[in-house]
User: Fold these one by one.
Assistant:
Number 1:
Amino acid sequence: MQVSIIIPSRRREHSLYRLLHSFIKQTPVSMEWNVVVVGDRQSCWTPEFVGMQFHWLSFYTCTAGGPASARNLGAMQSTADWLIFVDDDCVLPPQWLQHWENVFNSVPKDVVQIGGPGRPLSKPAQYSAFWYLVESGFLTKPVRLNDRIECIPTLNAAIRRDVFQKIGGFDSSFKFAGGEDSDLTYRLYQHGKVEYSDSTYLYHDHDRSFLNILEMYFRYGRGVAHHIKIRNRPFQEGMFIAGNPFKIFLLLPLVVRSGWQLSKGILCKNYLQISIVLICAVGQSLAYQIGGAYEMIRRKVIG
C-alpha cells in the first residue's frame, strides 16, 4: 500500500519546518509513504533547501488559486492508493502514520474518505475563548447534518486517490480557505461512504486572535454559500454545514460553572472569562452568517 501526504503551504515556513520534522520521529510502518509540499510563489524557502533536509519530500509551486488548487496540484504528483491532506500548521504525534496504516488495513472498500481529529497543539498561558471552543468540540468535531457527516476538515483527511481523480479533486472555483472541504465531502458521497477515526489525531496550532477567528468564520460563511449555490442545495442547509449557530449552547456548562464560582466568591476573574467566551462564540456565529450573506449578495450583483 502506498500513501502520499499532501501539504499546501503559504508563507508559514516555521510551521512547515516544524511539521516536516515531526515526520522524522514517526514510528516505522510497512506501507510506503512520501510527502508532497505545494508552496505559493511568495514563499521564501527553496526546493533545494527542503530537498537537502528531507529526502522523502518533493516540492512544487502553485502560482494561482487558493488551497484547493494547491492540493489538486499536489495530488497530481501522486500514484499512491491513498492521499492524506494535512495543513502546514499541524504537528504529528509519533504514531500518526501507524494509526493511519491500521485504519487503511481495516477500512471497508466502499469508504472513500476518512477524517481525523485536530487536537490543540498547546494550551495558551491565559484562558482564551478560542481555547474553550476547541476544548469543547465546538471547532474540532466533524460537522453532521441528519446523522450524516457534512464536512471532513482537510487539515487531517484521507481520500482514495482513484475516487479523488474521478470527481476532479477540489473545486478550484474556491479561491480561499473555506467551504472547499465541505464541497469535496458532498461530492465524495456520490461514490461511497465517509467515516471518521479518532485514532488518527494530530495536533493543530490554534494560536489565533479574536479578529482571526472572526475572519476565519467570515470565510467559512462565504465558502459554504458558494458551495450551496453551485450545488443547488437548500439555503437552510448551509446554515449548519460549518457554523451551526445552535452550537453556542455548548457554552452553557461554562456559564453555569462560572456563575456558581462567582456566587461563591471564587475568583472574580471568571466573570470576565465567561464574558469573553460568549462574545467570541456569538461573534464567530455572526461572522459566519454575515460571510454567507455577503457571498450571496456578491453573486447576485456580479451575476
Number 2:
Amino acid sequence: MCATCGCGTDGAVITPAGHDGHPHPHDHPHDHPHDHLRTETITLEQKVLAKNDRVAEENRGRLATRGILALNMTSSPGAGKTTLLERTIRDLGGQWPIAVIEGDQETLLDANRIRAAGARAVQINTGAGCHLDADMV
C-alpha cells in the first residue's frame, strides 16, 4: 500500500501524454517501435520526506533524553488549537512547566495569547504554511 495516499500500489504509473495510438508519420534517425500505448511503472527509491523524518527522529531523541513530553497539535485554521492550549496552560501550568513552539505564516497573535495564558512561547514565522518542519524545531 502507498504510504502517502493508501492507493494500494507500490510505484507510479506513467502514461505518455498526447499519444492515443495515432499514426506517427515522422522520420527518426533510428528505428524503434511506435507502440505509444504502453505504460511504464517506476519505483521511488527514496521517501520524499526522508530528511524531515530523520531530523524529527533526532528531535524526539533529544527531547526524550531530557525527559520532555512533546505534543504536536495540528488541525485546520480556526479549529480551536490555541483555545485548547490556553485552557490547558491555565489548568495545568501551575503543576507542569509548559512551553510552546508556535508556527504561523506571519503573525504573533497566537504566541501572544499563549504567553498571556502563562506559558513560555517561541514564535516561528514560516512565511508560507503554518506547519513546522522538523529542522525548524
